[in-house]
Amino acid sequence: MTASTAPSGLLHSLWHRLTHSPIWPVLVLLYIAGTTYLVTTAPRALQWRVLFLAGLLFIYYMPQRPVIKLAYAGVVLGILVPFLGISNPFLLEIGFQICVFATLALGLNIVVGFAGLLDLGYIAFYAVGAYLWAFYGSQQLYNLNSVAGAQQVRPDFPFDANLFWLFLFLGIGVSAITGILLGTPVLRLRGDYLAIVTLGFGEVIRVLANNLDKPINLTNGPQGITPIQRPELPGFLTSPAMLEWLSGIARRNVSVGDIYGFFFYGLALVILIVTIVVAKRLEDSKLGRAWTAIREDETAAIAMGIPLVRTKLAAFAIGASFSGAMGVVFAANRTFVSPETFSLIASISVLVMVILGGLGSIPGVIMGAAVVTLLNIDFLQTLSLELSRLRQGTGVIPILGIPWSQLPNQLDPARYQRLVFGLILIIMMIFRPEGIIPSQRRKMEMHEHEEAEARA
Amino acid sequence: MSEPLLQLTRVTKRFGGLVAVNNVDFTLMSGRIESIIGPNGAGKTTLFNIITGIYKPDEGQVRFNGHSIGGRRPDQITALGMCRTFQNIRLFPNMSVMENILVGAHTQLRASNALGAVLRTKQFREAEEQARAEARRLLRYVDLPPGTGDLIARNLPYGQQRKVEIARALAAKPRLILLDEPTAGMNPSETEEAMRLFRRLRDDVGVTVLLIEHDMKVVMGISERITVIDYGQKIAEGGPAEVRKNQRVIEAYLGRQAQLHDERAAAVGGEA
Questions:
Q1: Exposed, middle or buried by CB within 10 Å (0-12, 13-18, 19+), for A336?
Q2: A vs B: CB pairs below 8 A
Q3: CA-CA distances (angstroms) from residue A84 to A44, A48, A56, A77, A257?
Q4: Per-residue pLDDT tens digits for A296-337
Q5: How many Cα atoms occupy the beta-carbon half-sphere of A186 within 13 Å?
Q6: Which residues, other chains included, contact A25 with Cβ-Cβ below 8 Å and sequence gap of 6+?
Q7: Mean pLDDT along residues B59-88
Q8: Helix, strand or coil for residue B210?
């Protein structure tokens, strides 16, 4: 950890000594083993789950060679999470969603963090990917002329389920093209104006999805498209012997649906890793430098021979392509796609992940996605469950003296998602505007004024 | 006589009612060091902005290196072999000095495309390494201390930032370099050094140098020819000795200064 996070010099030097000693990797290993054990003892307990995932942070901050860190992370993500997932499928769902949103956030980070173009309609590209597979991977092609909601479920699909793999790549291409189409007319605008127009375009895509059930039923309107096919898994994974074996380990009935849980977690993880590599390599290339240059000083960038529109479009297209691929995966995972998923608030959620984690910082953005996703689907939900358990009991709220059962439903924490985000964002902007794991460059930009004052 | 490197024919630029550049003809031959001077607000920087394509002239045309630059974007004009520095330094403040220069080499890094970057092809790595080596060479060439490349541009002292800006422009391998008040804010010894650098640019790199300058010592000391602009119009042209004696030039400068002097006296009088 850096000096700024340690409260005092003594603590910091102790911390430094500890993390640089040869026993530190062993301690991290023990920590991981311990938290893994705790998760197995109480699969539902939120605190163990969070401590377990926090192990990844320790690995990230471990002052070791990248190979060792990667090996550690590989063990946690590739072996421990699936292993724990056998008895605790929710962990796989969390892992899947974090991977999905981290990929989206990395894509948006290219547009907002690298190139400095504020895009408030980013979720539209995710929608394009999702609807692409939803359309071709479902029975929607049979229903072009039927009114939404009136069609019958048929036993057959127009396309083979395994075309999913092809559409994964088509999703990349189609959303990249959408990015270029949307970007071309608006990229002459800067700053706030660009943000407003992209916001509009994001809504246009959602409204199209909502209304394109007439005159030809392409999207099935607000009802959404379902069922959507999933790719076939290799036979041995879904064989009765395999299911029985896994059921034995998990001490519960493991179904084919659970196997898909492993599959989608693994697939999303692979896509996330590819995305990280691509984003990192692009950042450190001619294109990445051109993005930063445009963000820092557009006029000077042009004078250096950087084609403004083409470079900005590249950011739009590449950013869009990541979420397009994830959109295809999302459609198959949920087997259901509807316009609601792609609301403005979803765009803003992804933006919150980017800003919270650290604009322009790849590890930061992943961290942001993890924090926001965990808050969304784990923290607040668990709190809500806990509260409803109390409400059903006969206990009394301490101090207030009111029975839990009379607690109004409106106080359900899951309803306060946005409020909690708002508070977190405000607190972050006051105390750490550069994000949880800031990029070096952004950190300097944020503290420019303080430095200038200090110098004066 | 061969074709001039840069040729402006009757260039006019208006901003609303103000004629910033009025019917200016200007010719620059390859391999020379020349200056454009004029009082504040005379239209010198506007002229630079027209040459580099940031502004489109309302009338007249600009030819560079055998191409008309009309209808070309600024980045395309840079790719033709022209690069510039700015009056108030415009480095990319939060990028390292090395990155700044690599951005300058943007037009030269053709082999480094996005796909190559993602796959880290041999071609990409070689192009990048070559560009870095060239950047290090440029840093030495403009006399920046070793290790400057890793520093953040913003943290450099003023004089060094000017040098980085020149190195960044040189990274584009230009035939013509436009320097907008390159010695502004420099102390006399830094100015001396800068003048030597400009001469070296021409002598050993073969770059044609066009300066906008206020410091008369620099202008008179280095320019082979001087073009004087006042109120957007060219009022004189010639060698340093010639221009120094030109009556209109003296009037433009002295007149303005005398006026300023009066104003200042009046202001001081008013306060007293």
A1: middle
A2: 102
A3: 11, 12, 15, 10, 16
A4: 999 999 999 999 999 999 999 999 999 999 999 999 999 999
A5: 24
A6: A62, A64, A68, A72
A7: 93
A8: strand
Q: Are the Cβ atoms of B75 and A288 closer than 8 angstroms?
A: no
What values do phi and psi take at B11, rounded to 5?
Answer: -85, 130
**Alpha helix positions (H), A42-88:** 46-60, 66-74, 81-87
Sign of the Cα pseudo-torsion (A8, A355, A171, A284, in order):
negative
Cα gap A360→A437, rounded to integer Å: 10
> Got the DSSP string for B27-66?
EE-TT-EEEEE-STTSSHHHHHHHHTTSS--SEEEEEETT
Q: At what angle do helices A89-108 and A123-136 cross, to 10 degrees?
A: 120
Partner residue facing A281 (CB), from B93, B120, B152: B120
Burial of B166 (0-12, 13-18, 19+ CB in 10 A): buried
| For B112, nearest residue in chain A (alpha carbons) | A286
- Positive or negative, the Cα torsion across B92, B97, B99, B104? positive
Closest CA to B26 of B34, B15, B14: B34
Asked whether the beta carbons of residue A444 and residue B154 sit closer than 8 angstroms, the reply is: yes
Residue of A nearest to B76 (CA): A305
Instruction: Kindly list the domain boundaries of chain A, sorted by start residue.
Output: 1-87, 90-369
At B150-168, the pLDDT tens digits run 999 999 998 899 999 999 9
**pLDDT tens per residue across span A166-197:** 999 999 999 999 999 988 988 888 778 999 99
Shortest CA distance from A278: residue in chain B: B118
| Window from A405-409, B131-135, B157-161, B209-213 with minimum mean pLDDT | A405-409
Position B117, amino acid? A
Least Cα separation, residue A202 to chain B (angstroms): 27
ipTM: 0.89
Distance CA A134, CA A336 (A): 7
The CA distance from A107 to A101, in Å, is 10
Report the predicted TM-score, pTM, of the whole model to 2 decimal places: 0.90
B interface test, pick of A277, A284, A286 with most B CB neighbours within 10 Å: A286
